[in-house]
Amino acid sequence: MLKRRMLVLIAIAALAGGVIIVATRGTIPAPVVPSRPPGLHVTIVAQPGTPAPAKLIIMRIAHSSGLVDFDGEGILTDPWFTESSQYHHGEPLGLALANLPALTAVVVSHGHYDHFDIDAFAAYPRKDVPFFVEPSLGSAARKAGFTNVYELPTWQSSHAGSITITATPAKHGVPEVTYVLQGKGSTVFFGADTELIPDLDEVPKRFPKIDVALLAVNGLHAFGKQVVMTDQEAARLAGKLHAQIAIPIHYAFKGGWLSDTFFLSYHGTPEGFMRAAEATAPETQVRILPPGQRLVIDYSTAQTAGLVRRGDERQ
Ligand SMILES: [Zn+2]
Ligand SMILES: [Zn+2]
């Protein structure tokens, strides 16, 4: 499929040869990892006196797009399945759009193409899937055929299946929310691509037990202006959230030669985040998840004392 939405963005004459470069926003399917890698298994002991939460599985699809599975109830975050001349995942997709499971809900943080690939996601067949979006995106989601769209402003909660979805603060170049997802005894913070802002300090006050935090780390600057947390800032946020596990997201992205040469710069890596978190977030274990690899947090084998350390066994 080669879908053409030929919006001409930029035409420049290159200084050297006077060559005209035309960047388009046509979209093409992104490559998918050929086979699913094995999962990383983590065992967490439930708090004494509380029932053991159900199994939680996290899988990055790519960038900020991922599946958060609360023991059979799957939430898709920030769907992005195609690429254009200025938007490259920088990593293969862990899962093709056509292979998505039946979802319990979709959450979208903001309207940038790399987080809200609505033209591609319109192919998702279950049009009545509960679709939670930052409030300015409701009409676009409905126009794509989705019938169950909820516009969630910051600090508003809603439900899908047994999962509670709360929009939380964010700051970015455009209106954005992050999300706290709660279900079956587990709590996950989805950090989209926010900057680190004081408003996020409220999150751990309202959600004191965060099991997993998905945090953007590439410190993206656009035209010299910072629009995403750096790896150091993401580590500080992991510490503020007291997250048991933090998974870096939003780091492999490339804007193509033109953007990466003239407009964009990157200030963070998952490895830098892991190093910074050792000092800044000592309660937090960092797991770098390649696309398609599943992080399985299984409370059922509670005889293993405590969390398995960084770089533990792969099964
Ligand atoms: Zn963005
Ligand atoms: Zn982004």
Description:
The protein has six helices and 22 strands. By secondary structure, it is α/β, with parallel strands linked by helices. It has one domain: Metallo-beta-lactamase, Chain A (4-Layer Sandwich). The strands form five sheets. An eight-stranded mixed sheet has the order 4-22-5-6-7-9-10-11. The chain has a seven-stranded mixed sheet with strand order 12-13-14-15-16-19-21, covered by helices on one side. Helix 2 links the parallel strand 10 and strand 11. It is globular. The chain starts with 7 loop residues before the first strand and ends in a 17-residue tail after the last strand. Bound molecules: zinc ion (2 copies). The site of one zinc ion (ZN) has 5 residues, from loops.
Task: Please describe the topology of this protein.
Layout (H helix, E strand, L loop, with lengths): L7 E6 L6 E5 L3 E2 L10 E4 L12 E7 L2 E6 L2 E5 L4 E2 L21 E4 L9 H4 L9 E3 L4 H6 L5 E3 L5 E4 L2 E6 L9 E6 L2 E5 L11 H5 L5 E5 L4 E2 L2 E2 L4 H11 L3 E5 L6 H7 L1 E2 L4 H11 L4 E2 L7 E5 L17
Parallel strand pairs: 4-22, 7-9, 9-10, 10-11, 15-16, 16-19, 19-21
Antiparallel strand pairs: 1-2, 3-8, 5-6, 5-22, 6-7, 12-13, 13-14, 14-15, 17-18, 17-20
